[in-house]
């Protein structure tokens, strides 16, 4: 098949804008070039082009898998929603270039604080999300405070002489065996806590309390342990 017969202009333009190679244009009748095109487009769907973080769609797919893992393993996971305070004011007064520099700097500061197993994504215009698997309550709150402080202490160059300082509001919600959820509901609970932090004055953390499990160790053994041997009839 000659790829030149396909209408690939829009796809190639997207890859060129993202800085991908020009292999498809150089070898338009080569099957590996088509595979490279497909892989490149998939990469654009999984990543945010401005910050390089995971995309919102990719995060929701990961959340679904994490909910299943929590139900199987019993280990809780934490989803944090992080919003840059007063971002619209910066974008409006300093311009789009300053807003983009602010987002990229915040993304780098957040990325330097997370584990390889965590998933950090850009969730909205000035909003980020962070999934923390196998996360206990004390660790989650400590990390959320660390993220908030890291961004607050990061100077953000936006021009030859101008430097900005940003602050974050952070909200978080846990997924546990005791809470049956979906990615959308989990994200909504975390966003509710984010609104709580913003309502309290911004530049602070609000994390949903974990519910106490009413299931005893013996009951868990009966629910999730091996089946008893069948009785002879």
The beta-strand count equals 7
Low-confidence stretches: none
CATH homologous superfamily label of the largest domain: Reverse transcriptase/Diguanylate cyclase domain
Structural class: alpha+beta
The average pLDDT score comes to 81
Main sheet: strand order: 2-3-1-6-7
Strand content: 15-25%
Through-space gap between termini:
65 Å
The number of helical elements comes to 9
What oligomeric arrangement do these chains adopt?
single chain
| Cα shape | flat
CATH class division of the largest domain: Alpha Beta
What are its keywords?
GGDEF_dom, 233 residues, alpha+beta, EC 2.7.7.65, flat, Nucleotide_cyclase, two-stranded antiparallel ribbon, 15% strand, diguanylate cyclase, 5-stranded mixed sheet, Alpha-Beta Plaits, Diguanylate_Cyclase
Structure write-up:
The chain has 233 residues and is an alpha+beta fold. The chain folds into 2 domains: 18-47, no CATH class; 56-207, Alpha-Beta Plaits (2-Layer Sandwich). Helices cover 48% and strands 15% of the residues. It has helices at residues 9-17, 23-26, 31-46, 56-73, 87-94, 96-111, 137-152, 183-199, 217-224, and strands spanning 77-84, 119-122, 127-132, 155-157, 163-165, 168-175, 205-207. It has a 5-stranded mixed sheet with strand order 2-3-1-6-7, sandwiched between helices. Strands 4-5 form a two-stranded antiparallel sheet. α1 (9-17) crosses α3 (31-46) and α5 (87-94) crosses α6 (96-111). The longest helix has 18 residues, at 56-73. The radius of gyration is 22 Å and the shape is flat. The relative contact order is 0.13. InterPro entries: Diguanylate_Cyclase, GGDEF_dom, Nucleotide_cyclase, Rev_trsase/Diguanyl_cyclase. Residues 75-210 form the GGDEF domain. Pfam families: GGDEF.
């Amino acid at each position: 098949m000659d790829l030149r017969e396909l209408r690939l202009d829009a796809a190639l333009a997207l890859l060129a804008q993202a800085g991908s190679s020009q292999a498809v244009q150089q070898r338009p009748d080569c099957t590996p070039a088509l595979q490279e095109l497909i892989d490149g487009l998939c990469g654009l769907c999984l990543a945010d082009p401005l910050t390089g973080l995971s995309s919102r769609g990719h995060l929701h797919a990961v959340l679904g898998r994490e909910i299943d893992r929590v139900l199987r393993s019993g280990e809780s996971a934490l989803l944090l929603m992080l919003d840059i305070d007063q971002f619209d004011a910066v974008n409006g007064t300093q311009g789009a270039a300053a807003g983009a520099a602010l987002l990229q700097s915040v993304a780098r500061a957040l990325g330097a604080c997370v584990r390889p197993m965590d998933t950090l994504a850009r969730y909205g215009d000035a909003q980020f999300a962070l999934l923390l698997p196998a996360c206990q309550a004390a660790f989650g709150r400590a990390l959320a405070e660390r993220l908030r402080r890291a961004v607050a202490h990061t100077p953000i160059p936006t021009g030859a002489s101008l430097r900005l300082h940003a602050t974050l509001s952070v909200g978080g919600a846990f997924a546990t065996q005791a809470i049956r959820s979906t990615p959308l509901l989990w994200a909504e609970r975390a966003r509710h806590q984010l609104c709580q932090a913003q309502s309290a004055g911004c530049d602070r953390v609000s994390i949903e309390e974990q519910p106490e499990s009413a299931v005893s160790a013996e009951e868990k053994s009966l629910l999730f342990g091996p089946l008893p041997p069948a009785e002879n009839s």
